[in-house]
Amino acid sequence: MPENDEDIALVPEPQTWNKKIVKMLYKALAQGDTETIVRLVAADLEYWYHGPPQCQHMMKILTGESRHTEFKFKPRSIMATGELVITEGWDRLKAYWVHVWTLNKEGMIIQFREYFDTWLTVLLRASETGDEFPVWQTDPLERLHRSLPDLVLAI
Q: One short Pfam family name for this protein (predicted)?
């Protein structure tokens, strides 16, 4: 616990920690570091997928069904808001993906939403008013290359 104002400045925001944890996960996946993966991801991870059935690459990697060499997830952008970390990546015109990771207060990844070849908008709903504010949207340049189904995620 911080003891004074100077210590408080050294304690990162939860979003900063969460973003760092997700970056550590992608690095561990790339290196095949199962020890780190097990340490970062809850054993009872809640998983949700939207996209073509043959593109559930991340779940296959997390369950050990396939190796990270079959499909490489290299995030092009990472954004954190509260307990969520949103990553986005693409492999030229072959595949476009968005991952939404939810972390608990201890920094454990407890939920994973994977969107493949989907145009995604994330809205943050204010609990007091019910108003919704866009916090993240698929890279508009990706939309120029092909037609993607639209999906809105309200959090």
A: WI12
Q: Are the C-beta atoms of 72 and 30 separated by less than 8 Å? A: yes
- 3-class secondary structure per residue, the chain: CCCCHHHHHHCCCHHHHHHHHHHHHHHHHHHCCHHHHHHHEEEEEEEEEECCHHHCHHHHHHCCCCCCCCCCCCCCEEEEECCEEEEEEEECCCEEEEEEEEECCCCCEEEEEEEECCEEEEEEECCCCCCEEEEEECCHHHHHHCCCCEEEEEC
**pLDDT tens-digit readout, 2-12:** 444 454 455 56
CA 123 to chain centre: 15
- What is the token pair recorded at 24? 């550590």
The domain locations on the chain are: 14-118
Per CATH, the number for 14-118 is: 3.10.450.50
* Interval 93-107: pLDDT, tens: 667 888 999 999 999
139, pLDDT greater than 80? no
